[in-house]
Amino acid sequence: MEKIKTKIRISFYDQISKNKLKSFFLMFIIFLIFLLLGWVIGSSIGSEYFTLIMIIAVLFSTSYLFIMYYSSSKIALASVNAKPAKRENYPQYHNSVEGLCLASGLPKPKLYIMENDQINAFASGRNPQNSIICITTGTFKKLEKSEIEGILAHELSHIASYDIRFMTLVAVMVGMISIISQIFLRSLWFSSFSSGRNRNNSQAIFMIIGIVFAILAPITVFIIQLAISRKREYAADASAVKFIRSPTGLIKALKKINFESKHLKLKEEFKNKKVINKAIAPLFFSDPFRKKMNRKKDNLFATHPPIRKRIQVLERM
Amino acid sequence: MAIYFILGIAIFIIAICIYYYNRFVILENRIKNSTAQIDVQLKKRGDLVPSLVKIVKGYAKHERKIMENVTMARSLLLRTKGINEKIKAGDQLQNALKSVFAIAENYPQLKANENYLHLQTELSAIEDKIAYARQYYNDAVLFLENASEKFPGVLFFRLYGRKKKDYLKISEETKKVPEIDL
């Protein structure tokens, strides 16, 4: 007798809102950790030093934010040596994106292409009016129209949800927490050599708590940042289905990518490491550094959810 | 003390009135815009027809009736006003085009012609785009419908005398299967 699996269907609207809510909640947690860290450190070293640390952290973070905000696309494109995709050479690319823009009401992003045998794509840009999509040459060779459309819809979803802007903000907050922790820990190291200031008991307690926090906070918020990235990926998958109204193309594309990663030769993996900068790996459709070992478990340190799980969720839509 | 309270409430009420007024304006304009997008695609489809007719006539000299159908459907589309009628006319044209592509199967030289293939790809892309544009139109109508029926939007909707828009339905033309004379 055949086992009949009853799948509970889920709507893409619910998937989108659920994952977005989770990502906002996680960002709020990061913000709380930031406040907590600030309070503990401030209580342990006194307000003048603390203000100094905060100023340095804010300066670094704001300049990073400005640079990323205005030129994240240029940086990402330059790092993979992407070229603009002309309409004469890639009519299907342009037609698919135009169709999806009609479905989503978004302005059409600038389209780029990068030389790479892997099936992958990324999107960048601070808002839909200033956005770009870049896709690999390998994608066109290996996928058919509905599958390519699925990937393009996923990238367009990132643009529509302002994911790039959101993840940049999260990265800035995580960065600030790292900077504050680092400065605090280093300042302690140096101050322990100078003739010590008199500290009272409560400051000493805060000092200990502060050290513990300063060591744990950066790694904790980094893990949270990756969790947020995974939630946004699920939301982008669901939004892609919202645009196309069918998960089939995206499912087939993910299955092909999964198959490809199983048979990824060692020399191809090495080539990827040279071409793709680790910093922009999170922007890609699927983890360009996926190793065979990490595929099975739900990796805490993965920027993308496991492909198997993404397919599972999509098949229930 | 009471005066500040009343002032606060007054400002709140004004703000909420402005909010809902603007909301309906935005949602209705979205619907208008998507109507225009559908129109653009329909026009593109109509514009490609003369080139297609010219090429096909060169190879399939005896299929006069089908070519006439297409040309007639195109002139009908050009003459029609109003989005619902235009969409109907567009669907009629698409049906006629389907017959053309069907008979092209019998002429291998035509099928191999580069210009014909290019036109076929373009028309196919336009068909996809019209489908997406209609989807967006219906989504926009849904948004307006939700905003106009939820509380408290429903009160403002009636207050401002706004009208709801209709969904685009599948016209009878597309449901018909094209006749092919074999």
Shape of chain B: rod-shaped
The count of strands of chain B amounts to 0
Helix content of chain B: over 70%
Protein chains sharing the most extensive interface = A-B, 11 and 14 residues
- As a whole number of angstroms, the C-alpha radius of gyration of chain B is 24 Å
Shape of chain A: elongated
* Span of the ends, CA to CA of chain B: 88 Å
What name goes with the CATH superfamily of chain B?
LemA-like domain
Proportion of β residues of chain A?
Answer: 5-15%
Report on the biggest sheet of chain B. none
Could you name the ranges of chain B where pLDDT drops below 50 across 5 or more consecutive residues? none
Please compute the radius of gyration of chain A using only Cα atoms: 22 Å
Measured between the Cα atoms of the first and last residue of chain A, the distance is 27 Å
Strand content of chain B: under 5%
Known CATH architecture of chain B: Up-down Bundle
Overall pLDDT of chain B, averaged?
85
Order of helices and strands of chain B: HHHHHHH
**How many runs of DSSP E, i.e. beta strands of chain A?**
4
Unreliable stretches covering 5 or more consecutive residues of chain A: 292-297
Q: Summarize the biggest pleated sheet of chain A.
A: 4 strands, mixed
Report on the structure:
The complex is a heterodimer of chains A (about 325) and B (about 180). Helices cover about 65% and strands about 5% of the residues of chain A. Chain A has helices spanning about 10-45, 45-80, 90-105, 135-140, 145-160, 165-190, 200-245, 250-260, 265-275, 305-315, and strands at about 85, 110-115, 120-125, 130-135. Chain A has a four-stranded mixed beta sheet with strand order 1-2-4-3, sandwiched between helices. In chain A, strand 3 and strand 4 (about 130-135) form a beta hairpin. In chain A, helix 1 packs parallel to helix 6 (about 165-190). The longest helix of chain A is centred in the C-terminal third of the chain and has 44 residues, at about 200-245. Chain A is elongated and about 70 Å long. The mean pLDDT of chain B is about 85. Chain B is mostly helical and about 180 residues long. Chain B has a single domain (about 10-175), classed as de novo design (two linked rop proteins) (Up-down Bundle). Chain B has helices at about 1-60, 65-80, 85-105, 110, 115-150, 155-160, 170-175. In chain B, helix 1 packs antiparallel against helix 5 and helix 2 packs antiparallel against helix 3. The interface of A and B includes residues 91, 102, 104 and 245 of A.
